[in-house]
């Protein structure tokens, strides 16, 4: 049942029952109320409108007689499930006349198709443990915890995140430097609000993450593409591009090409930032899973001049709907970041923060990551086996060393945008490599995620991918 907005003009000569009748009828014809939707009882609507029940009863009786509404014994009153055609042809109000635009295409953020990037193994998440922790805190939340929270996050979670980052990622931080946000995108928006003014230059990896480019330039900053090579961002090129306020990098697992920034290149970048008085925005993308070596430490851990803003998220390690990420900032910037974070959406939901803090403290997170390394290793091998078996003649694997996706390059003459569209028609979800370039794409390729699909499904998906590629072979 819904709450209805029916403006009543008590000074009007139109009787109140007629105003209620006209308002309900127009809401049905405009599609505000849908067929089968329950409407308030006459008593509830009278109380809501602060009128006597009689005019409401009169309006409902007329609408029932004209088949706009229907009563169901023991259930209440509903918009008629099958409105007569002549009712649906009622002219639209003036503010809605004119050309009707089709609704925008849905953004498939929730798709679970094979090859979707950044999707973890949701079927392997310890849901029973998580449900127990959430239920425990839901039953014991204090009134203070149910009120407005600290914009920087629940203290217990900030402490748990800092402890985890120090041990697992080599990050130099205390809990006071950690701010909890709704994900890496939110972290980037907060960072941009604090550090970047309109017209400021921010260097971006080329190719790089389009979402970061959008977040960092939303306030008017200028994205300056800087090419990457097998060692990461070309700092030598960075030195020739003029004054810049910041540089955004994914040093642990470069998005989208997958290489890791070498130690020499990291030191070179830190030296550049110190000399230029610029900021390094480190997005620790897909840092937890490596298949050819041990996980690399964070760039932030090598920083001795407090020039690195460190950004991470639990979306790809646990599940995307959790919507909890974090940003670690130098102590001098904490007050400004806290103010900017508060202006974003006040604070993150307290219940999930409490549950996640315990999930980390009790060791569930570390055990989950260790177990998932084996799961993802098998899924990665299944994808590579399928590509070698079915697709080797028209694509080549560029990088599969880490993370939850494999980067492949396409043979000459194959357009990745066209291929992605054809894949979507067969319910395969992938990302075109060309979409990651700010300028003209130099490579045609695909980002093939393997985290969210079983080995069997991945092998079958590579066979379908081979069939899709037939027109180009």
TrEMBL record:
Q: GO terms for molecular function, please?
A: transaminase activity
Q: Which Pfam families match?
A: Aminotran_1_2, GntR
- Does the entry feature the keyword Signal, yes or no? no
Q: What PROSITE patterns has UniProt attached to this entry?
A: HTH_GNTR
Per the record's keyword annotation, is Nucleotide-binding included, yes or no?
no
Matching entries from InterPro entries are given as: Aminotransferase_I/II_large, HTH_trans_reg/aminotransferase, PyrdxlP-dep_Trfase, PyrdxlP-dep_Trfase_major, Tscrpt_reg_HTH_GntR, WH-like_DNA-bd_sf, WH_DNA-bd_sf
The alphabetized UniProt keywords are: Aminotransferase, DNA-binding, Pyridoxal phosphate, Transcription, Transcription regulation, Transferase
HTH gntR-type domain: residues covered: 14-82
Its family remark reads: In the C-terminal section; belongs to the class-I pyridoxal-phosphate-dependent aminotransferase family.
What name does the UniProt record give this protein? Answer: PLP-dependent aminotransferase family protein
To which species is this protein native?
A: Pendulispora rubella
């Amino acid at each position: 049942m819904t709450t209805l907005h029916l403006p009543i003009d008590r000074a009007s000569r139109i009787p109140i029952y007629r105003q209620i009748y006209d308002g309900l009828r127009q809401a049905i014809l405009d599609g505000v109320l849908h067929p089968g939707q329950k409407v308030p009882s006459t008593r509830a609507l009278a109380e809501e409108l602060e009128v006597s029940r009689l005019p409401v009863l009169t309006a409902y009786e007329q609408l029932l007689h004209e088949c706009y509404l229907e009563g169901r014994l023991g259930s209440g009153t509903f918009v008629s499930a099958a409105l007569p055609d002549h009712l649906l042809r009622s002219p639209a109000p003036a503010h809605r006349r004119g050309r009707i635009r089709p609704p925008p295409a849905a953004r498939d953020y929730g798709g679970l198709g094979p090859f979707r990037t950044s999707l973890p193994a949701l079927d392997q998440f310890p849901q029973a443990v998580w449900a127990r922790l959430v239920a425990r805190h839901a039953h014991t939340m204090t009134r203070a915890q149910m009120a407005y929270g600290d914009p920087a996050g629940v203290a217990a979670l900030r402490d748990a995140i800092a402890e985890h980052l120090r041990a697992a990622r080599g990050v130099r931080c205390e809990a006071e430097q950690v701010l909890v946000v709704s994900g890496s995108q939110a972290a980037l928006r907060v960072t941009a609000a604090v550090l970047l003014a309109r017209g400021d230059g921010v260097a971006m990896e080329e190719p790089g993450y389009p979402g970061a480019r959008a977040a960092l330039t939303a306030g008017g900053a200028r994205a300056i593409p800087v090419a990457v090579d097998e060692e990461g961002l070309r700092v030598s090129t960075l030195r020739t591009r003029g004054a810049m306020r910041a540089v955004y990098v994914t040093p642990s697992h470069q998005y989208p090409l997958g290489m890791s920034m070498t130690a020499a290149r990291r030191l070179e970048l830190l030296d550049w930032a110190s000399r230029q008085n610029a900021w390094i925005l480190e997005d620790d993308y897909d840092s937890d899973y490596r298949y050819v070596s041990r996980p690399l430490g964070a760039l932030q851990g090598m920083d001795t001049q407090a020039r690195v803003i460190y950004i991470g998220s639990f979306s790809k390690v646990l599940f995307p709907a959790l919507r909890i990420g974090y940003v670690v900032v130098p102590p001098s910037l904490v007050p400004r970041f806290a103010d900017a974070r508060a202006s974003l959406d006040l604070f993150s939901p307290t219940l999930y923060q409490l549950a996640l803090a315990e999930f980390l403290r009790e060791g569930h997170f570390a055990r989950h990551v260790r177990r998932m390394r084996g799961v993802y290793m098998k899924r990665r091998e299944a994808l590579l086996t399928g590509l070698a078996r079915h697709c080797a003649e028209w694509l080549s694997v560029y990088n599969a060393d880490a993370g939850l996706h494999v980067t492949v390059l396409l043979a000459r003459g194959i357009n990745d945008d066209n291929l992605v569209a054809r894949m979507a028609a067969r319910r395969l979800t992938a990302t075109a490599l060309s979409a990651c370039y700010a300028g003209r794409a130099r490579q045609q390729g695909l980002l093939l995620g393997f985290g969210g699909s079983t080995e069997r499904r991945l092998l079958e998906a590579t066979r379908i991918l081979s069939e899709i590629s037939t027109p180009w072979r």
